[in-house]
Amino acid sequence: MDPQLSHEIADSVATVIIRNPAKRNAMTAAMWRALPPLLDELAGDPTVRALVLTGEGATFCAGADISTLQGSPAEAQGLAVAAEDALAAFPKPTLAAVRGHCVGGGAQLAAACDLRLVEEGALFGVTPAKLGIVYAASSTRRLVSLVGPSTAKYLLFTAELIDAGRALRTGLVDEVLPEGELDKRVAELTRILASRSQLTQAAAKEFANGRTDRDAHWTEQARGSGDTAEGVAAFLERRRPRFTWSVPTAE
User: Fold this and answer.
1) What one-character-per-residue DSSP string does 25-71 give?
2) I want to staple 211 with a disulfide (CB 3.0 to 4.6 A). Which of 34, 150, 202, 206 is the partner?
């Protein structure tokens, strides 16, 4: 099988799968380029309410395909950062489902997701120091926001791998699941995410990511959405809410 990103949509959840089994799902230049337009397509699909990123088989992603760095390392890094930024900007909840190695560019992608669920035995590493690469400022800031300056420095300075337990303690991941339980928990959590108000989620995502110029926008969206009235009515009537606000599609 040629290296590729594939995707499927089921029960309002899009799953993007990193496939390059010959190289532990390392991302090629073509795969980095393919991710932003794929995310644009899925963001514009009104049936998609959440997105899962995962790797084929027993590995999430071992990083960038190192052979792509031989030509222009700066260009290769630019592709990775553009893909990471596109994932971070995805307007609906995103979740990384991680097994095995989540290293280098794989760790960049996982950090760009909103949530990270991992299976016991997973290993994480941020490894530019092994290659003499200056880690991008945006990627560094995102890592610091997750784990704090001290742990970010440890990961960047040493390029050492840490296990799932330490990743959980530092805030790099949100949950660690026993072997065989990851898919069940991902399905459960994405089902919850898909049932909640997209209005709440979209606004909360922007605020949590540090955007400070859209308070009035979200106040106006809430006023006209009907989601609050529906949520209160559903609570009082002891039924599931039927939220109708959805992320606007790009023109």
Assistant:
1) TPBPHHHHHHHHHHHHHHHT-TT--EEEEEESTT-SB--B-GGGGTT
2) 206
- What is residue 118's predicted lDDT score, i.e. its pLDDT? 98
Tokens, residue 67: 């052979």
- Backbone phi, then psi, for 214, in 5-degree steps? -125, 20
DSSP single-letter state for residue 249: P
Amino acid (one-letter) located at 119: E
Give the predicted TM-score (pTM) of the model: 0.94
Helix (H) or strand (E) holding 7: strand 4-10
Please name the helix (run of DSSP H) or strand (run of DSSP E) that holds residue 14, with its range, or none: strand 13-19
Return the structure tokens found at 101: 């190695």
* Helix/strand number for the chain, H first, E second: 9, 9
> If the chain, 251 residues long, is cut into consecutive pieces of 10 residues, what is the mean pLDDT of each piece?
93 97 94 97 96 97 79 80 96 98 96 98 96 93 97 98 98 98 98 96 95 93 91 95 86 44
Asked if 160 and 185 count as a contact pair (C-beta separation under 8 A), the reply is no
Cα–Cα distance between 84 and 63 in angstroms, integer? Answer: 12
Q: Return the axis-axis angle of helices 215-225 and 198-208, rounded to nearest 10°.
A: 170
Which residues make beta-bridge pairs with 175? 117
What percentage of the chain's residues is helix, strand, coil (to nearest 5)? 50, 20, 35
